[in-house]
Design goal:
By secondary structure, the chain is α/β, with parallel strands linked by helices. It folds into 5 domains: 9-109, no CATH class; 141-360, P-loop containing nucleotide triphosphate hydrolases (Rossmann fold, 3-Layer(aba) Sandwich), CATH 3.40.50; 365-508 and 635-688, P-loop containing nucleotide triphosphate hydrolases (Rossmann fold); 514-569 and 573-584 and 593-614, no CATH class; 712-857, Rossmann fold (3-Layer(aba) Sandwich), CATH 3.40.50. 40% of the residues lie in helices and 16% in strands. Strand 2 (94-100) and strand 3 form a beta hairpin.
Length: 858
């Protein structure tokens, strides 16, 4: 069967030169050529040539070819008729020349707008060229994950540590994961589902937007369909408003019966309509993981504040209390975390919070910043940027009305492959946009923050801001949608003074005053139901109206929730929850009456909140105000610092990498966030000297509080050996790889070893190592490569086996802290700390091969 050649540069050249006689190929060799192919395939059916869509794509292809080959790439295209003339081509940065008959040559020109400084031009050239700038730190994946995931490697040591920690963390604990955008953070949530299957326990993944829930569900469905014996089938993996009543009932039933496996949903759904079924799952031991993606939102107080996000902490406590079997694990994930955010996690999700992080700033984004206070001139510059930007491109705005007006403006300018995405976009339309975006049918998305956080589109080449995000962190998050494939992406911010005012208004903490906070607390507390004998645990009605208001509104309820959350962050109380009762229909009750009673009950239930009061002076206005005032001050200080950083960014007075480094770096003991600096280029770099995309591999921080390791089999058979130092198992000189591998198999099966380290040569030469996890009762064995480990060692306290099969013993192996460390080596191998001494002579903490095998057989 012949396969039609894909569209590439040569075939595109041939197609254009022979248009319209030659049909377009069925597929492009990459996303860019696929976009061009789609436009070309529709041209013959249109009376008007879609030049606004076609010209930027042809420019991108030509510019990329020119930059990669250091030649002037050209296409011969038709001239006249519906095809553009020289002036029209120039409008998109394309030069048309050398007309011959009814054709001409076109070539792409660098974009050097007169409104940017000369040092800032050309714009987007590296994004057009697409030469990778990300360091390759891929490392072999653990075999127990290889088959279910279909992956051969981890993206980085940081991703490896985060995924391993998700499996090794203790039930009931909280894991904070901080990995840069493009480092495979989503796989941390996906891995347990892929390994255990949909009937191996429920993972609830809480995400901030419907777009992200739908996109994550799409990815998960594809991976399950391709890798799992029991794929997603007819299950809906995302909970959203677009589901029918029947579909929602089916999801709740699957959750209760342990068939759902994974569910992506909003925080509002978790604290609301999904809660009863989640409690049933917790009671039955069916809830495995509670995961919050984009968890930095848990610490926000501005307009982006969503009480439901912070209330998750209380629901978590209630669900943990409901667990009659093993408690579930909690994971909080984000690409960017400030020290303030991590402190919030400790308060709301502690105790038992652990951090795993490997943070480097992104080398892919290149920054351009321009101010124009004339609204019409600013809009004209943004439209010019859209015409000249590489594809695909995201245009970010702040307001829904701005998204609509920009969408209309682009469509009026002839752009057809455009989508508009904002908070009021219907779910059915969101599904279509996400599918079209992932399949290269959209070149430009005009979006508010409702789109883009976490959406898995790897080849976005430009992110343009027509508004100022409220914080530097938000800006960096949105810029991070570009260049996820490791190649450069352009970031252009064009703003006016009015945009700065809007950003500052959004970022301003919406905090209640000390006096009003006390009034709200006093009103809720006065009507509270005491739930324990000690007078610490209470059920509150968050619909309570304080004395100075007249009636209940959603606004009032939101401010009551804000008050409780601020009290929790100040340490005055812990947010909690209680399981809802089971409603049963009485024999004499009609279906209609029961439905009405149930509706009224749940309406009341969802306006209640359980708290554990920690502060004895909570009823004293002065004592209360003193503590709350300190918390408010911390929030305002953080907001002022955000404002200072934002002004430094938009004025171009600081190097962007320096600003971001200062924002995220932290030396807090136990919460250190060591950030490896990088910057693809910014106004300061271009003015003072070129940027360097070189950056060091970030330090990897792992966890030390893991599931208990079972040493009983080892200590029962070898009680005379000390666990305080490595135990050396000496092998005869004539040993081979098979001998060492049999030791590894016995160590896993008989003694519960869950970490095996070998040389790179032995791992490559011995595929049987990939089957070790099948001999483990837990199904998990971590397989290390000694050479890779030397660059980024970790101290996760696992039972460890190190096989030293080469001529030299790596020194780092002897420095690792493990509850049990067995080193397998020739007796004649030199001790790295005493070159004149052999490992067989190190003392009494040694074991022969015969002794080990005898112990393994007992």
């Amino acid at each position: 069967m012949r396969t039609e050649p894909a569209l590439d540069f040569d075939r595109l050249h041939e197609f254009l030169a022979n248009w319209p006689e030659q049909p377009a190929p069925a597929v492009g060799i990459d996303g860019l050529f696929e976009r061009a192919r789609q436009v070309l395939s529709t041209m013959s059916h249109q009376s008007v040539l879609p030049i606004a869509d076609l010209a930027p794509l042809l420019k991108h292809i030509l510019r990329r070819e020119s930059l990669r080959t250091a030649t002037t790439a050209q296409f011969r295209v038709p001239y006249g008729g519906q095809w553009p003339d020289q002036r029209e081509w120039a409008h998109y940065g394309v030069s048309a020349h050398s007309p011959a008959g009814r054709t001409c040559l076109i070539e792409a020109l660098p974009w050097a707008p007169a409104w940017l400084a000369s040092t800032d031009t050309p714009v987007f050239d590296d994004a057009f060229g697409q030469r990778p700038v990300r360091q390759d730190w891929t490392t072999a994946i653990d075999p127990f994950l290889a088959q279910p995931s279909g992956f051969d490697t981890y993206v980085s040591p940081g991703q490896r540590e985060a995924v391993r920690s998700a499996f090794l963390m203790r039930p009931g604990d909280t894991l904070v994961v901080c990995l840069p955008t493009g480092s495979g953070k989503s796989f941390v949530a996906q891995a347990p589902v892929l390994v255990k299957g949909l009937e191996g326990g429920l993972t609830v993944c809480i995400v901030p937007t419907t777009a992200l829930a739908l996109d994550q569900a799409r990815q998960m469905s594809e991976r399950l369909a391709g890798r799992s014996r029991n794929g997603a089938g007819e299950l809906h993996l995302a909970w959203h408003a677009g589901l029918t009543v029947e579909e929602k009932v089916a999801i709740k039933t699957a959750v209760r019966q342990g068939r759902q496996g994974v569910l992506f949903c909003s925080p509002e759904a978790v604290i609301g309509t999904l809660l009863p079924s989640l409690y049933d799952a917790a009671r039955s031991g069916l809830l495995d993981y509670l995961i919050v993606d984009e968890a930095h939102l848990l610490s926000q107080w501005g307009d982006a504040f969503r009480p439901a996000f912070q209330m998750i902490a209380g629901v978590r406590r209630g669900l943990l209390r409901a667990c009659r079997h093993q408690p579930f694990r909690t994971i909080l994930m984000s690409a960017t975390l400030t020290p303030e955010a991590i402190a919030t996690f400790d308060t709301l999700f502690g105790p038992g919070v652990q951090l795993t992080a490997a943070v480097h700033l992104r080398p892919e984004p290149q920054y351009w910043i321009h101010q124009d206070n004339d609204v019409a001139a600013k809009d004209a510059k943004i439209l010019e940027a859209i015409r000249h930007a590489p594809r695909p491109v995201i245009l970010y705005v702040t307001k829904r009305d701005d998204a609509r007006s920009w969408g209309a403006r682009l469509q009026a300018a002839g752009f057809e492959r455009v989508a508009i995405f904002h908070g009021e976009t219907p779910d059915s339309q969101r599904l279509k946009i996400i599918a079209d975006w992932s399949e290269d049918r959209i070149d430009v998305i005009v979006a508010t923050s409702a789109f883009g956080v976490g959406i898995d589109k790897s080849d976005v080449r430009a992110v343009i801001h027509a508004a100022v995000p409220e914080t530097v962190d938000r800006f960096y998050q949105e810029v991070g949608r570009g260049g996820r494939d490791g190649a450069p992406a352009g970031s252009l911010l064009v703003y006016g003074a009015a945009d700065v005012d809007v950003a500052e208004a959004i970022a301003s903490p919406s905090l209640i005053s000390d006096e009003l906070a006390f009034d709200r607390w006093k009103a809720m507390y006065s009507g509270a139901t005491q739930l324990d004998a000690l007078g610490r645990r209470f059920r509150l009605d968050i619909a309570t109206v304080p004395p100075k208001l007249r009636r209940q509104t959603d606004y009032n309820q939101a401010w009551n929730m804000r008050t409780l959350i601020m009290m929790a962050r100040a340490g005055l109380l812990d947010l909690d929850a209680e399981a809802p009762p089971t409603l049963e229909q009485s024999p004499e009750e009609t279906e209609e009456a029961f439905d009405q009673r149930a509706e009224e009950f749940w309406s009341t239930y969802y306006t209640q909140c359980v708290v554990d009061v920690n502060f004895g002076g909570h009823s004293d206005n002065d004592a209360f105000s003193k503590v709350i005032s300190a918390e408010r001050s911390r929030a305002f200080v953080a907001a002022e610092e955000n404002s200072r950083l934002l002004k430094s960014l938009i004025t171009g007075s600081y190097e962007v990498g320096e600003l971001l480094h200062g924002l995220y770096q932290s030396y807090e003991p136990g919460r250190a966030m060591i950030v490896s600096r990088a910057c693809g280029g910014c106004p300061v770099h271009r003015r003072d000297g070129g940027a360097s995309t070189e950056y060091s591999q970030p330090a990897v921080t792992g966890i030390d509080r893991i599931v208990p390791q079972d040493l009983s089999a080892w200590t029962a058979r070898f009680p005379h050996l000390s666990l305080a130092a490595p135990i050396v198992l000496t092998l005869p000189e004539a040993w081979d790889d098979g001998t060492a591998l049999s030791v590894a198999a016995d160590a896993v099966a008989a003694f519960n070893f869950s970490e095996v380290a070998v040389s790179r040569r032995l791992r490559t030469a011995s595929p049987t190592l990939n089957q070790l996890h099948k001999r483990s009762s837990s199904g998990i064995v971590l397989l290390e490569t000694l050479e890779d480990e030397a660059r980024s060692p970790t101290n996760t306290p696992l039972l460890r086996l190190s096989i030293l099969s080469e001529q030299a013993a790596p020194a780092h192996v002897f420095e690792l802290a493990r509850p049990l460390h067995l080193i397998v080596a020739r007796a004649s191998l030199a001790d790295p700390y005493h070159p004149g001494r052999r490992l067989g002579d190190v003392g009494t903490n040694t074991l022969s091969l015969e002794q080990f095998r005898s112990g393994a057989r007992q």
